[in-house]
């Protein structure tokens, strides 16, 4: 593969990976406008975000076996078509209930892109390069939190929130065309993969019984839940608690994404000297300590806008370093059923994200404490799962170049 082909492939896979986050981030500045138009509260609007998380979690379990049975591209095309139609439907929603339902369907479509892109990393690149590839995908993925909320804020202010979903439909159409024209067939369909419930469940159970998978998949998913706590709670924190405008919120969100993106790229440098397990250990320790400090500051009433921005930046950086290493370590033991493994990993991430967003939406009183506490709990639980789980890994599969074994 030439250098040009390599980066073209990274760009397409990164765009597929970014579709769901773009769908999450772009409408966040419109929460207040949606609440006003649909005659509901901002907390109720946040349930449309929860519906999206639930949809993408459940949908990934659906697409995993389909990607292994029919190859990567056909299920991808179907999912993207569903996404486009649901996005148009969201733009015409006249009640919060219909918006929540359509966001769920939109998520079902978008997660085809998420699962396919992760599985294709396992298909197209050597295992030892996967952590670096995931870090590069996060660089492309970084366009979402940097561009989406900023664009969404301006579009909402100028034209209304419904136009945000029309733009997302157009984006889905572009991604579908790029996938059809330039994405290679990376996996031969396997008719031996059964789509009956019992074999599918057995296949997922076989994946989750792998100690290296459950250790790093659950560690990464719980750590990633802190990101969803931030995403679901930041509109309330910044626009209601601290009173910033839709446009300013979009710029703050974009700026904070630098912590997440920059850390993921720092990870590619750190992998030259350390393996993924060593990096995760330090990142999670920092995550837990910073989370506790953030929660204590918010609870004591000492939090102001600059302090909140600093805490969010540092915590997102911890997630940005943890995520690519946890993803690559989770998938390293698999080849034949990489689609199911990637689907299960993604479902865990979105499932924990949905859970934490529901909990945060239950707090009607404007406060930064629920978000800060959610991130602290995510950091502490992830650290605990990491230390407990890695004791059960007998023969680890190395992923970083130069690793003979993972550090214990």
SSE order and pairing:
Elements: H1 3-25, H2 31-37, H3 42-70, H4 73-91, H5 96-124, H6 130-141, H7 143-158, H8 162-182, H9 197-208, H10 211-241, H11 246-270, H12 276-299, H13 305-331, H14 338-361, H15 369-389
Helix pairs in contact: 1-5, 1-6, 1-7, 1-8, 2-3, 3-4, 3-5, 3-14, 4-5, 4-8, 5-14, 6-11, 6-13, 7-11, 10-13, 10-14, 10-15, 11-13, 12-13, 12-15
Protein name: DHA1 family bicyclomycin/chloramphenicol resistance-like MFS transporter
GO molecular function, one term: xenobiotic transmembrane transporter activity
GO cellular component, one term: plasma membrane
How far the N terminus sits from the C terminus, by CA atoms, comes to: 35 Å
Percentage of residues in DSSP E strands = under 5%
Low-confidence stretches: 400-408
Most strands sheet? none
- DSSP helical segment count: 15
What's the rounded overall pLDDT mean? 84
Large-scale geometry: globular
Helix content: over 70%
CATH superfamily, please?
MFS general substrate transporter like domains
Quote the CATH topology.
Answer: Growth Hormone, Chain: A
The CATH level-2 architecture is identified as Up-down Bundle
Tell me the count of domains.
1
Structural class: mainly alpha
